[in-house]
Specification:
304 residues; alpha+beta; 4-stranded mixed β-sheet; 10 helices; 10 strands
């Protein structure tokens, strides 16, 4: 996309927000603009919308927003869809999400996992020996079946008994392409895996926290009593005025300090930054720079 096309798309974004009469605070409006731009330029496959109200109000506003921008037949906004998982709501670039799903389940080394049920938390070296990691792998397969066009239905038939999900509950890709909303809540049925664990994967974090629903209190305690590294991916939009060196947060995630003492020099952090820079190289017309920042945080209250 050329610079002029990007500017036109951003004007459409601003206009659509106003037309939906979504009363976003200035900070939330700014966050939404960054999130949408990150999705449309391929920097992120999924963002969680946890601002601008509560469900189902947020869902109504997001669907109204998509209806307005996609009515203009702009290829910029065409891949966007609203996704719901239980009480959580997301915006998805379904094309980028398909690639991300394939990448994340393609190799066990692509993601790192931390067991929060243990005190102190520990990195998982063999995901097949952790029930939550196995549960997440099963859910990833369900997402793959829904979002990937090239999947064969017989793959699901082989896993049907393990997943406990009947075939007719799966949304079809054709329906996703025709609709603004896809509900993936069924993937959490009868599972001990928590939404924070699912979010760790969905939102593209390189390190995912693992804990079961029965261990939420333990997980909160085990994380709240530890020093953390807060990792922030910072960017700067090309259309933004002000200090060009001042970064805007694209995404952020935490890792216990004792498991990330080298900060951005950790092997998984370096690999993550390389992947993000490869995406940035494809959309420099939208973003002036990208960098990863790691800041130490002392023990503090954590909420999931």
């Amino acid at each position: 996309m050329e610079r002029t096309q990007l500017e036109k798309a951003l004007m459409m974004l601003q206009s659509a927000i106003s037309q939906t009469k979504w009363r976003l605070k200035p900070s939330s409006r700014h966050r939404f603009q960054i999130d949408v731009l990150a999705l449309c330029t391929g920097m992120r496959p999924v963002v969680m919308v946890d601002y601008g109200g509560k469900m189902p109000e947020i869902q109504q506003h997001l669907c109204a927003f998509l209806e307005l921008v996609q009515k203009e037949k702009s290829t910029f906004f065409e891949p966007l869809r609203v996704m719901v998982v239980e009480d959580m709501i997301y915006l998805v670039n379904f094309r980028e999400f398909t690639d991300y799903i394939d990448w994340s389940i393609g190799s066990e080394t692509n993601l790192s996992f931390i067991d929060l049920e243990q005190d102190p938390p520990k990195m998982i070296t063999n995901r097949d020996e952790n029930s939550v990691a196995v549960d997440l792998s099963s859910i990833q397969k369900l997402f793959s079946l829904v979002f990937t066009q090239s999947r064969v239905n017989t793959v699901f038939m082989n896993d049907q008994q393990n997943d406990g999900t009947s075939q007719h509950t799966l949304p079809k890709l054709h329906d996703i392409l025709q609709s603004q909303l896809v509900d993936m809540s069924f993937c959490m049925k009868d599972r001990q895996l928590t939404i924070p664990t699912l979010n760790g994967w969905l939102l593209g974090y390189p390190v995912v926290y693992l804990f079961r629903k029965d261990y939420i209190t333990d997980a909160i305690c085990n994380l709240s009593t530890k020093s953390l590294h807060l990792f922030k991916v910072l960017v700067r939009r090309n259309d933004t005025c002000g200090d060009p060196s001042q970064g805007e947060e694209l995404m952020s995630f935490s890792v216990p300090y004792d498991l990330s003492m080298d900060g951005g020099n950790e092997p998984w952090a370096e690999a993550f930054l390389l992947r993000m820079k490869a995406k940035w190289e494809r959309c420099k017309h939208a973003w002036r720079f990208l960098k990863l920042e790691a800041v130490q945080c002392y023990p503090q209250a954590i909420a999931f």
